[in-house]
Amino acid sequence: MTLTKLVVKNITRRPGRFVFTLLGIVIGIASFVTFLSLGGNLKREIHRESAALGANLVVTPKGSCAYEQVSILTGEQLPTTITMDEVAKIRAVKGIFAVPFLTEKTAITNRPVAVAGILPGEMKKFKAWEITEGDYFSGENEPGVVLGSVASSQFSLKPGSFVTVRGERLPVKGVLKETGGRDDVTIFLPLSVAQRIYKAGGHVSFVAVRVSDVALIDDTIEKIKETVSLGVVSDKQMLKSVLSIVGTVNITLQLIAAVAILAAAFGIVNTMMTATYERKREIGILQAMGAKQQTIFGIFVLESGFYGFLGGLAGAVAGMLFSTLASPYINQNAFTTFLKGSGTGAVIDLRVMAGSVLFAVLVAVLAGLYPAWRAARLSPVEAISYE
Predict the structure, then answer these.
(1) Residue 35 DSSP SS3
(2) Which end of the chain has fewer surrounding CB within 10 Å, N or C?
(3) pLDDT tens-digit profile of 105-153?
(4) Cα 45 to the chain's mean position, in Å?
(5) Taking the CA atoms of the chain, what radius of gyration do you get in angstroms?
(6) CA-CA distance, 115 to 128, in Å (whole number)?
């Protein structure tokens, strides 16, 4: 009998114990891979949304925290405290192109949808939008909506259809070409129409600013702060702040998963220690046949490693499947909305899977070292006389 067959026979001789020990590893690694995968996708989506915003600077209400910066990238509803007079003063600063946003929410067939009030002409130029169906707004005060491509397909809305926003029935003017960002899942209204429907008065949520000379970003920030008493953050600062929050949350989740893996490791220790006592006579026979301590030690370490390999492989596959299938159904909030993106779901990362399997094998081998040492230290007389 080869060493591999012997290892497989030993760990499967008690199917119940084998399954439950394996399940501990599978659950731990699946949790770890799920959080790692979702965290990686969060970071990718954050980078993409930051680039899609198309701004070097963002002007926010004074005293805004990092949570508001997350909401800017996700299109979540924000306080509307910036006045149109302040917007006008910002736009008067030389060397910049500034566009205001009013971010709100509505619901279509009981599903939440982001709504953005914009200055149609300037926003189209700012974002370089293209229309794939229908027409764009013909005026700054035209009552109607333009849909992102994903929002159009999700709710089967085409030019000529009607959508109800806050109780007001508005015609669908057109559908934007896919951008790959949050614009794809957003409903756009002319700013004046959105302010009227949402009773925002002459207020907006934030102002996106593009600087003509990126070398003058710091000077531009100071000029805007001197002009209006509002918060100003650069795209790099906002990205760093948001990634810091997401990174902290992700590390916390991974530590929780690590506890599950540690519990699985103790399960392996318990299983292998039990196997050591149950197989004393077998160990004695192997010693009588000339097996050295290194050989017996190696058999038990291989058995532990085999648990780690099988559990790690199954856990990695389960974790990736869960993160891929679950991301579209995660309750939407300022953080997890990134996972929804444009409906792309999670991305399967083979490096994460391979690393997780290796990690599982390493943990299992370390967990099996002490039982293997105990088995190898048995004296031949003690082992072969065991009943």
Answers:
(1) helix
(2) C
(3) 898 888 888 899 999 999 999 998 999 999 999 888 899 999 999 899 9
(4) 8
(5) 30
(6) 19
pLDDT value of position 334:
46
In this structure, the dihedral spanned by the alpha carbons of residues 330, 331, 333 and 336, taken in order and rounded to 10 degrees, is -10
pLDDT digits (tens, 9 = 90+) for 349-376: 778 788 888 988 898 888 888 888 877 7
CA–CA separation, 167 vs 56, rounded Å? Answer: 36
For 21-60, b where at least 16 C-beta lie within 10 A, e where not — what string?
A: bbebbbbbbbbbbbbbbbbbbbbebbebbbebbbbbbbbb
* Phi, psi torsion values for 305, nearest 5 degrees: -60, -35
Crossing angle for the helix pair 350-376 and 235-278, to the nearest 10 degrees: 30
CA distance linking residue 283 with residue 111, whole number of Å: 64
What does the pLDDT read at residue 348? 64
According to the 3-state scheme, what is the secondary structure of 254-278? HHHHHHHHHHHHHHHHHHHHHHHHH
Please give the C-alpha separations between residue 38 and each of 210, 332, 361, in angstroms, as whole numbers: 31, 14, 23
More confident residue, 351 or 208: 208
Residue 86: closest CA among 222, 234, 230: 230
Which two three-digit tokens encode residue 149? 């491509």
The amino acid at residue 267 is G
CA quadruple 57, 60, 62, 68: dihedral, nearest 10:
-120
Total Cβ atoms within 10 A of residue 269: 18
Name the residue with tokens 């394996």: 22
CA 211 to chain centre: 30
Q: What percent of the chain has pLDDT over 90?
A: 25
In this prediction the pTM is: 0.67
**Taking the domains of the chain in order of start, what are their residue ranges?**
3-47+242-384, 62-229
Whether 163 contacts 145, CB under 8 Å: yes
Q: Is the pLDDT of residue 346 over 60?
A: no
Q: Can you say how many angstroms the Cα of residue 339 is from the centroid of all Cα atoms in its chain?
A: 5
Distances from the Cα of 292 to the Cαs of 1, 212, 383, in angstroms? Answer: 17, 76, 14
Relative to beta strand 145-147, strand 168-176 is: parallel
